[in-house]
Every structure is written in C-alpha cells, then in structure tokens.
Amino acid sequence: MRFDNAQEKNPYFGGGGLHQIEPGGFLKIHADFNVHPKLKLDRRLNMLIYMNKDWREEYGGHLELWDAEMRECRKRVLPLFNRTVVFSTSDRSYHGHPHPLTSPEGVTRKSVSLYYYTTGRPEEERSAAHDTIFVSPDSAR
Predict the structure, then answer these.
(1) CA trace torsion 39, 44, 13, 131 (10° rounding)
(2) What is d(CA 116, CA 111) in angstroms, rounded to the nearest whole number?
(3) Which contiguous run of DSSP H or E holds residue 7?
(4) CATH code of the domain containing 71
(5) pLDDT single digits (tens) 50-93
(6) Total domain count, the chain
C-alpha cells in the first residue's frame, strides 16, 4: 500500500485524504478547522478509517476523544484495520493521538480521513472561521 501526498492530487481535500504516522509520531489534541479553506463550507463531520493490519495494543496510536471542557478523555480508540470512527466537528470536538507511537521500525499508523461539509450550521455552533486549534489537557484546567 502506498501513501502519497493526497493534497497534490485533489486540492479540495482540505486536510483530508491519506495519513501515515511513523514510529515516535503523534498528533496533539486539537479541534479541527471549521470552514473549508477554498469552498467556504462548514465542516460538520469527520470520518476516519484505519488501515492497520495486525496492529497491536502495545503500539499505541489510540485516537482520544475528549469532552468539550478538556477535562477528561471520554473514549480511546485503537486504530485497528477497517475500524471506522465518525464524530461531529465543532470548536469543542477535541481529539488526537497525543502519545508517541511505539510500533517497530517500518510499522506505521495509516488512516483515511474524510470530511462532510454543509452550507451553514446551527446558530449555537457558529463561530468565526479558524484554523486547527491545538490544546493541552493541562492548560484547560
């Protein structure tokens, strides 16, 4: 399986497409950008599909889904082959895999990210357009 830079092939992905993390890599907890950079549509849902055959618990790479106040991780999801996670995208849908991968050399964490956009969102979810917001659980307390 080859993971190229999907952005070059389709500039409308806006961060979506194929992702690959090498051993030692991680993704800090964050809330995603809320408006598509080119189409100006509201980002509403994320869908992650994991492509990791024979992934082991000890490799780590769990997706963490945090509460809106960043007080606790509500769910940890091991990135097993064909596992799919769908969640709402808002200014407070914090997620990431903050702990470095401990997989062996040559074993990477692979996923496909797809996003759903709409024209508008509920009034209570509206905010000014912003880039990805990285947060630390410690700074939110």
Answers:
(1) 80
(2) 17
(3) helix 6-9
(4) 2.60.120.620
(5) 999 999 999 999 999 999 999 999 999 999 999 999 999 999 99
(6) 1
Q: Are 59 and 118 in contact (CB under 8 A)?
A: no
| 3-class DSSP string for 13-28 | CCCCEEEEECCCCCEE
41 found inside a domain: yes
User: Which tokens belong to 131?
Assistant: 């880039």
Q: Which helix (H) or strand (E) holds 64?
A: strand 63-66
Please, are residues 108 and 23 in contact by the beta-carbon 8 Å criterion? yes
Average pLDDT over residues 7-29: 82
**pLDDT at 61 (0 to 100):** 97
The backbone torsions φ and ψ at residue 77, rounded to the nearest 5 degrees and listed phi first, read -120, 120
Question: How far does Cα 108 stand from its chain's mean position?
Answer: 16
The Cβ of residue 136 has, within 10 Å, a number of other Cβ atoms equal to 11
Query: Which residues span the domain enclosing 28?
Result: 19-121+128-134
Question: Is position 4 within any domain?
Answer: no
pLDDT band of 95, cuts 50, 70, 90: very high
Evaluate if residue 138 carries a pLDDT over 80: no
Asked whether residue 140 is assigned to any structural domain, the reply reads no
